[in-house]
Amino acid sequence: MITKIIAEELVHKTKIEIENAENIVIVTHVGPDGDAMGASLGLWHFLMTIEKVPQVIVPTPFPNFLAWMPGADKTLTYSRDKEKADECIQNADLIFILDFNASNRMDKVADAVVASKAKKVMIDHHLEPEHFTNIIISYPEISSTSELVFRLICRMGQFSDINLACAECIYTGMMTDTGGFTYNSNHEEIYSIIYELIRLGVDKDDIYRKVYNTFSADRMRLMGYCLYKKMKIYPEYQAALITLTQKELQEFNYDNGDAEGFVNIPLSIKGINFTVFMREDPAKIKVSLRSQGTFPANKFAAEVFGGGGHLNASGGESYTTLDEAVRKFEEALPLYTEFL
Ligand code: 5GP
Ligand code: MN
Q1: Given a cut of 90, is residue 326 above it in pLDDT?
Q2: Going by CA atoms, what residue is nearest to atom 17 of ligand 1?
Q3: Domain range for residue 182?
Q4: With 90 as the cut, is the pLDDT of residue 1 above it?
Q5: Ligand 1 binding pocket includes 129 (Cβ within 6 Å)
Q6: Which ligand does the CA of 35 lie closest to?
Q7: Distance 197 CA to ligand 2 centre (A)
Q8: Quick one: pLDDT at residue 216?
Q9: Would 1 be classed as within a structural domain?
Q10: Average pLDDT along the chain
């Protein structure tokens, strides 16, 4: 039994917008992850089935381990295909904003989307959405945007328009945003939805292998290097930090997505409940934060690195040197002991 979580009015309004739309664009966040791609491509397949021809636009490339996803090859990457993407956004009469809730998470796509006269619908599960869309379908208690896309399609009475490709994308997003159903995954209806997806033909074991067991040897060596040489433990703060410089990334032939998941690893150490990973990108330091239990990774991300996210999984950025970002982190740790 799957309960009605999305408000009826939002379902109704979205259905009308879809019916009336000729040109639909789907935009997701910079550095798209499994849920961003799962929700976007899941919705894309559904819309294709009902004879709309939407365009998915990702601000920056998706990681290689998601390239197998059906429809991934039809996406436009803004950082490579700006002109074509801008044209799609200009001609759009409906834009879906998926898996993020603040316009700056669209990176360089933001200007075109914000300027567009298209109706905009946000479907997302992050706390405190910005109000820049006409319809906001925001349910932070749901563990993935992909699950929300499934729920929306069902509530529009169109379950029969979910084909296998759509189901595979939705499953991928649900799986990746819960770490393979190891966190944020106690809501029993997740498993009712998986039951439906498997009935549609999803091979969940195969999807797991495609997403998690396709790493390069370089990535495995980079992971080993991080754990052996780069992991710093702060026992008094139940915290761990891993950093990687540009030079180190280059030494291991870093490819998009190669450091995905590194931030989670120290959480499997007994007594560690907060972990941070910093990657030195050419223009900024990308910071990923994870926690277990009640430690507010999102508060730390917002207050120290101008970011945000979920209680246990957040991100931010630092426009400083890596050393300076580490210093900010170490200075902030003692201020959060009340949450340990
Ligand atoms: P990741 O560490 O995988 O990049 O991000 C984890 C989560 O943190 C994302 O799902 C997103 O909710 C949030 N997040 C990541 N980067 C940022 C950021 O720069 N700003 C905000 N507000 N949230 C972020
Ligand atoms: Mn998500």
Answers
A1: yes
A2: 315
A3: 8-212
A4: no
A5: no
A6: 2
A7: 18
A8: 92
A9: no
A10: 97
CA 304 to centroid of chain Cα atoms = 21
Q: Do 306 and 242 share a domain, yes or no?
A: yes
Pocket flag, ligand 1, residue 308 (CB < 6 Å) = yes
107 Cβ below 6 A of ligand 1: no
What CATH number has the domain bearing residue 153? Answer: 3.90.1640.10
Q: What is the DSSP string of 91-156?
A: H-SEEEEES--SGGGGGGGHHHHHH--SEEEEEE-SSS--S-SSEEEE-TTSS-HHHHHHHHHHHT
Cα gap 125→144, rounded to integer Å: 6
| Amino acid at residue number 308 | G
Angle at 60 between CA 54 and CA 63, to 5 degrees: 95
Per-residue pLDDT tens over the stretch 23-76: 999 999 999 999 999 999 999 999 999 999 999 999 999 999 999 999 999 999
Q: Residues 189, 252: one domain?
A: no
Q: Which residue has the least CA distance to atom 6 on ligand 1?
A: 314
Cβ–Cβ < 8 Å for 303, 200: no
- d(Cα 322, Cα 326) in Å, to the nearest integer? 6
